Every structure is written in structure tokens, then in C-alpha cells.
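Assemble and predict.
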Amino acid sequence: MKVMDNLYYTKDHEWLKIEGKIGYVGIADYAQDQLGSIVFVELPEEDDEIEAGEAFGAIESVKAATDIYAPVDGTVVECNYDLEDEPELINEDCYENWIIKIKIDDESQKDDLMNADEYKEYLETLDEEE
Amino acid sequence: MDVRKTHLYEEHQKLGAKLMAYSGWEMPIEYAGIKEEHNAVREKAGLFDVSHMGEVKVTGKDAEKFVQYLVTNDAKSLKEGKIFYAMMCYENGGIVDDLLVYKYNDEDFLLVINAANVEKDFDWMKSVKEKGNYDINLVNISGEISEVALQGPKAEKILQKIADKDLKEIKFFEFFPEININGIKCIVSRSGYTGEDGFEIYTENENIASIWRKILEVGEEEGVQPIGLGARDTLRFEANLPLYGNELSKDITPIEAGYNFAVKLDGDDFSGRDSLVKQKEEGLKRKIVGFELLDRGIPRHEYPVVNEAGEEIGFVTTGYKSITLGKSIGLAMVDIEYAKLDTEIYIQIRKKQAKAKVIKRSFLKKNYK
């Protein structure tokens, strides 16, 4: 599984990229691989306030729907509307194709997330469970 | 509960399948991906491991009488060498299971039932046998039989290469009680669960792996692929074929489910018949309809269906973004006043109510031969 450096990760396999006060949120390689062919992405509205750990949208494969959770608190400033017409972009490159861009309320919340190394270790524990 | 493995488990591992527990069996969910597999079956051919299905033999003097009472379809009019689809119902009309009935002759039938229901079904059959005092032998042979299905427009061409009889001799829903496939004795029927032409092949457990490998080998030039349960469900759904647990259950009657072709109310008596006759006379209060989503979203099993006022009027039994048609469609059990074609209904998808329209259930033209 591909893990990108310089991103923060949740246990539900969302990633967060921080650029100053702005954050980009997407799903990690592990999640897109588990889902298989992605056929639908439900995006939030711009200006929606999101809260860490709460679902802000959903990703659907042929088989099932999965919620996407906010990694930190913030406000949605932009959605990646390309995903409405081409949800499979996430399968093609899940790190390039972010889902929402947010204004982060409190940058220190990133400390509750995993960095790339921690996330790699976390993935190994999941493999062991299988 | 112990998870059982079919005799093709190692083949699935070798092919890199994603495996998952389903109905008590460790089954392949997908190999190359649901979309690719789905399209392979519609356009070329696909091979399914369906060894988890259950099989019961009914033999003896009263076999036909027993089957007649056991199932909703008319066993007496079924000809030797033919199959029909039917359901078993409780006295109240709720469905025990759906099944295929293979008729060898008046005294010899094979019943093919769902994996998840094998024990329940067999107990039910035994109770029907005892109650009616039928002179039959009822044997659950599920543990000895493995099954694969080869489905798709190229299925006949592929299977013919290794069959010792002319497959053109059997039409859809007919079977060879005995035919050699790759030199191995099998039962082969022209049937399936995809809406495509195809075959279901039954043989003894120890022979199934060699047949599986041989079909993939000789079918390579036609583009055959192994297909998981993921695509099995999207394929059967598009063809409006029901799944027990979705469209069918102990709380749903065959009439409500809308599979009337398999229910012969004017024939001989069968378990549940009186309740179904009564239901038909009194008029249905609800039924399963097809629908197309007009708003964005994907309907899923058990999502609520609501009216414009937001009142619950039913539930989705199966829904997908159809791979073949490219649009979001579904089947839903709705109150009868919402069952007319073109009626506007709403599917509760998470926090949103997505607008939908009742459409015909024949989403796709079937390609049977």
C-alpha cells in the first residue's frame, strides 16, 4: 500500500494535507483498494462546518457505501466536483485527487492523527489481523 | 460458526480472489474487480463457484406428489429433463426459500436451494414429508456435490469443447442428467442467475477443481474470467432475479414479491396456497416495484422509501448503480398506492431524500437460448 510522506492519517484511512490554515482531505490507498471500483462520491456543501470524527460525505463502490470522516474540525471551502462525474479518479490516484478543501479551525488537532510512519505501522497491524 | 471452504478454495487463492465469509462459506467476492467481471459475463463468459448451494434428492413413489405440495409451481406439468423455478412457502404464504426443481421422472427430483437456508429448508421438507405421510426418500446431498456456473454469450462455445454431448440439444431450463465434461460425469443444465445464456454444472466434490481449471483453460481464447459473488449479485439484479434475504423472505409472499410466473394458484394444492389465494382476492397492500433514481445517489438494500411528505412507504430490497445501464436503479417494496408506473417516490439516502420514479422491473432484456 502506498503511503505518502508529509500527510496525516486517520484510523479510517482518510488523509489530511496541511498548507497553512488550509487542509485537503482524501482517502488513502488502503481504503480505495478495499473499496474497489468507486462509482459515486457524495460531497458536502461548501461552508458546511465539519467536526473531527464525523461523517461529511460518502464514497460508494459497486458493492457498498462507506462514510468519509473529517480528520479535524473545520469549514468546507471547496469540493472536488470532478469526482461527481469521474469518481474513479480516486482509484487512479487517491493522493492527487483530494475530496474536500477545508479551513482548519485548530491546527494542533493534527497531533491526534498519525504521521506517515505511524500510519505504516498501523497498516501492518491490520494485515496481521487478517 | 465454522466457516466452510468449497473444493475450489485453493483455486480462488491462486487466482488472487478477495475472499469473504458468505452464508457460512468462505467465498470469492471478486477477482479482477466487479465491473470488469460483470462486463465479462454480459459480453463474453464468466465462471462462478457456486458450490455453496444446497442440493436435495427426492426419490420414491410419491416424489411428484410431494414436490407438488412442497413448491408453488406445478410439478405435474413439468416434463422429464426440464427444470422450473419455484418457491417453498409457509402456511401463511411467507417464503421459506426459492429453488430450482430438476425433474428426472415422476419418482426422481433434484432440488437446488440457497446455501444460507440448507438446514432450515431440509427441516421444512422433512416436516412436509411427515405431515403428508409421503412415501419418499429425502436426502440432503449438499455435502457431496460441488457446482460451477458458466455464464455469458460464449458459454456454449467454451463448454462444448469439453462436453461429450451436443449442448444445442438442451434449451434454457432443460438439463442433461448425465454428460461427460472433460471426461468427468456431471449433471449440466442450461440455466443460471445472470440473465445470460449459460450452464450450471454439478459434479462430485473431488472432480470440481479439474473442471474449473479446464474451463478457464479452454475458454481463454473466448475471454472467460472467474467471477465472484459481487458481480453475481449485480448481474442477477439487473435481470430482475430475486435474492432470498432481499426480495424474498419469511415476511414477504411470492405475490408481493411479484414472481407470479412461479406460482400456480389454479393447480393442485401446495403449502401456503390458501393464504396466497386470499391475498390475491383481497388485493395486495404492498408490492415490489422497479425504480430509477432521478437525483444523484445510489440506492441500497434496506434504505427507507418515503413519499413527498417524508412518510415511510417502504424499503429498498436491492439497489445499484447498474453497471450495464450506467444509472442508479433498484427494487423496492412499497405501499400499493405508490406502485403504479411513473409514480414519484423518494429514497432516503443518509440525510438526503433522493427523488425516484417507479419504472418497469425488466431493466434488461434477457439473452436466454
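The domain at 11-125 of chain A is CATH 2.40.50.100 (OB fold (Dihydrolipoamide Acetyltransferase, E2P)).
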